[in-house]
Amino acid sequence: MQDDIQYMSEEKLAELKNELADLKNEKSPQLRKRIDEARQMGDLSENAEYHQAREDLAWALSRINEIQAIMGNAEIITASGSNNTVSLGNLIKVEDKNGKEKEFTIVGAQEANPLIGKISNESPLGNALLGRKKGDKIEISTPGGIQVYKILKIS
């Protein structure tokens, strides 16, 4: 895991805390119990339940470490109070070169979901929007060619 700052909302941090608690308090103990029960069945070399439980536990422990690293580098996105320049947490309305309007919310990488308009500050579009003002035009190079957007509104 990188040592970079992981920007996220309070909601995302709470979601990660809940997932971590579930992994530590529920899933890991259940998996350890499954391993112990499978171990008691005898020959471990041909015991599929034992091997699956060990794989599941390894995944759970890895996810625990990943969440702890993310939370250790977490920085909560707070509203800047200014709608003059694009920053993390802002909702941005843009217009493409065909006149089609789109809305994006700039979020940290952990929350990015382009299908619902949440774009990462690390994505080419998110990065290009940061620090810009209403009325600015930006150009983004994509696999499909150059995309041009004009910022209509920042909120």
Relevant terms:
155 residues; alpha/beta; Helix Hairpins; Chitinase A, domain 3; 2 domains; five-stranded mixed beta sheet; two-stranded parallel sheet; 3 helices; 7 strands; 39% helix; elongated
Q: How would you describe this protein?
A:
This protein has 155 residues and is of the alpha/beta class. The protein folds into 2 domains: 6-76, Transcription elongation factor, GreA/GreB, N-terminal domain (Helix Hairpins, Orthogonal Bundle), CATH 1.10.287; 91-154, Transcription elongation factor, GreA/GreB, C-terminal domain (Chitinase A, domain 3, Roll). The chain is 39% helix and 25% strand. The protein has 3 helices and 7 strands. Helix 1 runs antiparallel to helix 2. The longest helix is centred in the N-terminal third of the chain and has 30 residues, at 10-39.
